[in-house]
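User: Once you have settled down, look closely at the record that follows, taking as long as you need, and be ready to discuss the fold:
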Amino acid sequence: MAGRQATARRPQATARRPKVEAASDLVAREITIEPGGCTGWHYHRVPLIAVVKSGTLTRILHDGTVEVHHVGAGFVEPAGIRHVHLGRNLGKQPVVLHVTAALAEGDPFALPAEAPPGAMPCACPTRTR
């Protein structure tokens, strides 16, 4: 079979360069919520992966959904202000979470937020450490 092979060429770069994203590192953190404590309403800029190492975590999500996570359970917290949530320790022992995220240097793990419409503001006596 005779013939030519067509080669597709990339378009030439324009004078404008695409925005460069900040470099990120995989960061892990251990978070403890004492009995009766909570995280306060917050959200994350990047998705987080969490595993419950001890205790039982109760999460109240932006839409009013309540999720309960026991020892060994893992979950993902989606990124963005549309995913505001609150973590509570309603048990008698500390909740310990192992949380991992890909964050740029200096970026916070969580950003405080107002309670979503129809949700109760956080009135927890203690916050996470």
